[in-house]
Amino acid sequence: MNGMVQVPRRTVLVCCGTGCLANNSMEIYKKLKDKAAELESGFPVIPVLKATGCNGLCERGPIIQVLPDDIFYCKVSVSDVDEIFERTILKGDVIERLLYLDASSGKRVRSFKESEFYKKQFKIALRNIGQIDPACIDDYIERGGYEALKKALFEMSPEQVISEIERSGLRGRGGAGFPTGYKWRQCSKTNDFPKYVVCNGDEGDPGAFMDRSIMEGDPHSVIEGMIIGAYAVGAEKGFIYIRDEYSLAVRNVSKAIEDAYIRGYLGRDIMGSGFSLDIEVVRGGGAFVCGESTALMASIEGRVGEPRVKYIRSTEKGLWGKPTVLNNVETWANVPVIITRGAEWFSSIGTEKSKGTKVFSLVGKVKNTGLIEVPMGMTLREIIFGIGGGIAGSGKFKAVQTGGPSGGCIPEALLDLPVDFDSLSDAGSMMGSGGMIVMDDRTCMVEVARYYLKFLSEESCGKCTPCREGIRRMLEVLEDICAGEGREEDIELLLELSETVKEASLCGLGKTAPNPVLTTIKYFKDEYLAHIKEKRCPAGVCKKLTSYRINPDLCRGCSLCAKRCPAGAISGKQGKIYEIDQGICTVCGTCREVCRFGAVEVAGRATE
Amino acid sequence: MKVIIDDKEFEAEYGEYILDVARRNGIHIPTLCHSDTVPGQGSCRLCIVEVYERGKNKVVVSCLYPITGEIKVYTNSEKIHRMRRNIIRLLAARAPGSEYIKKLKEEYGIPEETRFIVDEKEKCVLCGLCVKACEKLGSMAISTVNRGATKKVAPPFEEPPVDCIGCASCAHVCPTGAIEVRECKGKRVIWNRTFELLKCTSCGRYFITREQYEYMKNRLGIDMKELLCDRCRQKSTAEKLVSLYKKLLV
Amino acid sequence: MREKPEEGILKVKSILEKYPKERRFLLAILQDIQKTYNYLPREALNEVRDYLGIPLSSLYSMATFYKALSLKPKGRYVIKVCDGTACHIRGSLDIVEEIKKQLSISPGEVTKDGKFSLETVNCLGSCALAPVMVINDKYYGNLKPAMVKDILESTGD
Ligand SMILES: Cc1cc2nc3c(=O)[nH]c(=O)nc-3n(C[C@H](O)[C@H](O)[C@H](O)COP(=O)(O)O)c2cc1C
Ligand code: SF4
Ligand code: SF4
Ligand code: SF4
Ligand code: FES
Ligand code: FES
């Protein structure tokens, strides 16, 4: 192009994460790209288009950012493309209606960074996501990528790397918060070769997607972390185990590995340092238990994913019986930043025992759903009501579930709990991998417990008695309670079985499986009692224990419910009070959903 | 090194399993999935004990917990007893058909099950020993299938297993008598597959399936020139092998 | 197999050739076969056994353990409705009910014409769009039962 005059560039970032792709963002990207290609030279700007990873704001997708102007558009559709191109990309004009609507202030903001959702966040693991094209290694390098690797290889000894990680206080982001530096040291001390490094990208927690976003949106950060870790412990081979459903993550990580080989960051004699490492992607087979470290290793070895007894640690005998360091995706993604910016900087963020930040997928009945990264120690209230903007719709906050099937439900009374590894465990829940599911008064806590136990009874590997048989029986009891067949002694029985399953199971799946039951009994016992004694589901979720009534004092006779009821169970005359025929009603809840006056109320089991 | 089990002191070797030390010294810990010939399962969890190590208290399975430092072990504390009873209750609810489990149930005074749905005919407790035994012999004809609550032991496609040699090691190793073996008129039926039995040329007793014989000859390279049952053929290589099978059965 | 057996075996052979004869590639091989045929045909498993020298019992064990593998043919369009937690509390089961009604199949089944099969899965990683389903590779988010009919009708061969 024009060699003399510097033509300004405008970078257009189109989010092409799974969420936005679901909303057609690829078509938007292609159309913009075509338009840019058609553009003849001589224009005052050069548009540079990039397909980025997930911004974490999937709910408002497809998302487009225009730089350097820092204009942030949400819910863009293909029909908006022409206008965006003509006005914003070529001229720098802002299209008001596409700007981000801040749920808390009700205002539209030009830059995403001005939103409440963004302001309280602190990005380390998500530092590049949404800002770079994950398929382009130069984008990563431009933002300081692979600098940490150079520093580690040429300025630090393996011992120094380990001690830096130890001093940073980094704890594993995949579950229990095991100190990462300590794990590395254990492995480096073991004098047995070859050694392996493994990245756990199984992300089995149903309701969490932060690891997916990182692998899709910034795969090099994980790879760089792994190379540094491998150098520190002396490993020569690495595996990235990616959940089966994550096809885009598999693609992007594989591409990133290829590019890293081409640039000499992987393979023999990395950048002339004498250190060599190979990394391979392994696709998971679709089993939650394969997120457990020993089951994951069995799966990499080409076996059924059954955990083994872990009285000897994987850092001594892991993959193929050799010393192995296994860390979570987010843990690995933190490593390069710690090496670049130092342990002191990292450990200045967070709380005394939980350093740094944590990524959460904030979902459920909250206004702003999406991926967030916050410093450890922020309270649940700040997260849910600050960043999350509070409860969506007309419901009232009831509980927040953290830690997935291994975690528990935390009630309103504990909303001021600082979010870190230890506080959550003390509350009977868990940090887990970072799922955070907000529940309102239309969520039944007994049904939530039933839901998780059903999940676990299917996902348990079935090897050991307490987990396989215990969960199955607890589920039987919970199903009875939800169906109105619960007995008074059932709560006692659940507690007793919980103890055995928790203490006597072989692996972490069984050892944490009772948590959803224990926390809901602890904090929401009255809901259990309502189901068992009064045969009533207060949330109106358990169909056998629910009927709907129209409150004559509130009904305005608008007829909307009668029109929408798919079973035709509602009768009445316009302007008069409507009524539900309990014999016909299928308890689908549509009437309750549509009534604008809150006249449809939940009652106990229908007596007719 | 020293180890304290139920407040008594015993000698143990570094890395020895708690169960082995306890047994040697006459302390009874109930087991189900443990077998000296196919160790390493840790699946039934019946043998749980409480361990105090470096100020920490934890529940472990004695059949696989190696003694590597100073520990105190309680094999039947109140907590262990309570949990073991629950495990037996769960096993009994799963496999009420097994005599062995019935005995355990009586021993621990566990009442008849009234809360859970039970399948009266089921005998398998999924300890996994049969699969391990078959694997160790090298035929690998059966495996666990499915996972979670629906896990079971079965041959591929739940059809008569092609790789099975009819040795019945699986049935012998099974603690609950869950694998059926029928023998009559020179035939053995196991896993719904019928095997022809060969006679001992000396005493005329049926003692080995044809497939088993072939297997020894072709895969293990042991050629029995004369077909002699173990009673008739002493100190022969064949005998060693058959007794090797037998060891597996204990 | 759907095509003539010889052709089928050829495809399996070309999958096998991509991998060294090591046990650790077993899962990847099975997944490739699953992708090619939409299930694991028996003949294909026999080929894998011969290639890797792994007994049929282990292959059967793998095939029944991992959810990504199936021994029964699936539909040409596989509908995966997410019943992860986020989707569950936003009404994923109502979506499943609606699909059951529209197609007269339950999760785990295939329509008579072989076009659709229905499954529930645990989180598709798009929780912010809950409830979510995916048909082959196409995602549908923020679903309502009323949207199901149109989506199914617009899914064509
Ligand atoms: C049943 C079960 C499922 C798990 N699933 C995951 C997972 O999906 N992703 C993950 O990173 N860790 C998972 N974990 C935790 C891992 O076992 C392991 O502790 C972790 O990956 C270690 O990495 P970290 O120290 O970096 O957290 C799971 C654990 C259990 C018991
Ligand atoms: S606790 Fe559950 S998942 Fe873990 S080994 Fe036992 S049966 Fe398998
Ligand atoms: S009888 Fe068959 S299944 Fe049983 S151990 Fe022998 S070969 Fe294996
Ligand atoms: S059949 Fe017997 S040996 Fe095999 S798993 Fe069941 S109880 Fe154990
Ligand atoms: S005998 Fe130890 S776990 Fe079964
Ligand atoms: S829970 Fe449905 S996409 Fe995550």
Automatic annotation (TrEMBL), chain A:
<keyword id="KW-0560">Oxidoreductase</keyword>
<protein>
    <submittedName>
        <fullName>NADP-reducing hydrogenase subunit HndC</fullName>
        <ecNumber>1.12.1.3</ecNumber>
    </submittedName>
</protein>
<dbReference type="InterPro" id="IPR017900">
    <property type="entry name" value="4Fe4S_Fe_S_CS"/>
</dbReference>
<dbReference type="Pfam" id="PF00037">
    <property type="entry name" value="Fer4"/>
</dbReference>
<dbReference type="InterPro" id="IPR037207">
    <property type="entry name" value="Nuop51_4Fe4S-bd_sf"/>
</dbReference>
<feature type="domain" description="4Fe-4S ferredoxin-type">
    <location>
        <begin position="576"/>
        <end position="605"/>
    </location>
</feature>
<dbReference type="GO" id="GO:0010181">
    <property type="term" value="F:FMN binding"/>
</dbReference>
<dbReference type="Pfam" id="PF01512">
    <property type="entry name" value="Complex1_51K"/>
</dbReference>
<comment type="similarity">
    <text>Belongs to the complex I 51 kDa subunit family.</text>
</comment>
<dbReference type="InterPro" id="IPR017896">
    <property type="entry name" value="4Fe4S_Fe-S-bd"/>
</dbReference>
<dbReference type="GO" id="GO:0050583">
    <property type="term" value="F:hydrogen dehydrogenase (NADP+) activity"/>
</dbReference>
<dbReference type="GO" id="GO:0008137">
    <property type="term" value="F:NADH dehydrogenase (ubiquinone) activity"/>
</dbReference>
<dbReference type="InterPro" id="IPR019575">
    <property type="entry name" value="Nuop51_4Fe4S-bd"/>
</dbReference>
<dbReference type="InterPro" id="IPR036249">
    <property type="entry name" value="Thioredoxin-like_sf"/>
</dbReference>
<dbReference type="GO" id="GO:0051539">
    <property type="term" value="F:4 iron, 4 sulfur cluster binding"/>
</dbReference>
TrEMBL record, chain B:
<protein>
    <recommendedName>
        <fullName>Ferredoxin</fullName>
    </recommendedName>
</protein>
<dbReference type="GO" id="GO:0016491">
    <property type="term" value="F:oxidoreductase activity"/>
</dbReference>
<dbReference type="GO" id="GO:0051539">
    <property type="term" value="F:4 iron, 4 sulfur cluster binding"/>
</dbReference>
<dbReference type="GO" id="GO:0046872">
    <property type="term" value="F:metal ion binding"/>
</dbReference>
<dbReference type="InterPro" id="IPR050157">
    <property type="entry name" value="PSI_iron-sulfur_center"/>
</dbReference>
<keyword id="KW-0677">Repeat</keyword>
<feature type="domain" description="4Fe-4S ferredoxin-type">
    <location>
        <begin position="154"/>
        <end position="184"/>
    </location>
</feature>
<dbReference type="InterPro" id="IPR017896">
    <property type="entry name" value="4Fe4S_Fe-S-bd"/>
</dbReference>
<dbReference type="Pfam" id="PF14697">
    <property type="entry name" value="Fer4_21"/>
</dbReference>
<comment type="function">
    <text>Ferredoxins are iron-sulfur proteins that transfer electrons in a wide variety of metabolic reactions.</text>
</comment>
<keyword id="KW-0411">Iron-sulfur</keyword>
<dbReference type="InterPro" id="IPR017900">
    <property type="entry name" value="4Fe4S_Fe_S_CS"/>
</dbReference>
<dbReference type="InterPro" id="IPR036010">
    <property type="entry name" value="2Fe-2S_ferredoxin-like_sf"/>
</dbReference>
<dbReference type="InterPro" id="IPR001041">
    <property type="entry name" value="2Fe-2S_ferredoxin-type"/>
</dbReference>
<keyword id="KW-0560">Oxidoreductase</keyword>
Automatic annotation (TrEMBL), chain C:
<dbReference type="GO" id="GO:0046872">
    <property type="term" value="F:metal ion binding"/>
</dbReference>
<keyword id="KW-0408">Iron</keyword>
<dbReference type="InterPro" id="IPR028431">
    <property type="entry name" value="NADP_DH_HndA-like"/>
</dbReference>
<keyword id="KW-0001">2Fe-2S</keyword>
<feature type="binding site">
    <location>
        <position position="87"/>
    </location>
    <ligand>
        <name>[2Fe-2S] cluster</name>
    </ligand>
</feature>
<dbReference type="Pfam" id="PF01257">
    <property type="entry name" value="2Fe-2S_thioredx"/>
</dbReference>
<dbReference type="GO" id="GO:0051537">
    <property type="term" value="F:2 iron, 2 sulfur cluster binding"/>
</dbReference>
<keyword id="KW-0411">Iron-sulfur</keyword>
<dbReference type="GO" id="GO:0050583">
    <property type="term" value="F:hydrogen dehydrogenase (NADP+) activity"/>
</dbReference>
<protein>
    <submittedName>
        <fullName>NADP-reducing hydrogenase subunit HndA</fullName>
        <ecNumber>1.12.1.3</ecNumber>
    </submittedName>
</protein>
<feature type="binding site">
    <location>
        <position position="123"/>
    </location>
    <ligand>
        <name>[2Fe-2S] cluster</name>
    </ligand>
</feature>
<feature type="binding site">
    <location>
        <position position="127"/>
    </location>
    <ligand>
        <name>[2Fe-2S] cluster</name>
    </ligand>
</feature>
<feature type="binding site">
    <location>
        <position position="82"/>
    </location>
    <ligand>
        <name>[2Fe-2S] cluster</name>
    </ligand>
</feature>
<dbReference type="InterPro" id="IPR036249">
    <property type="entry name" value="Thioredoxin-like_sf"/>
</dbReference>
<dbReference type="InterPro" id="IPR002023">
    <property type="entry name" value="NuoE-like"/>
</dbReference>
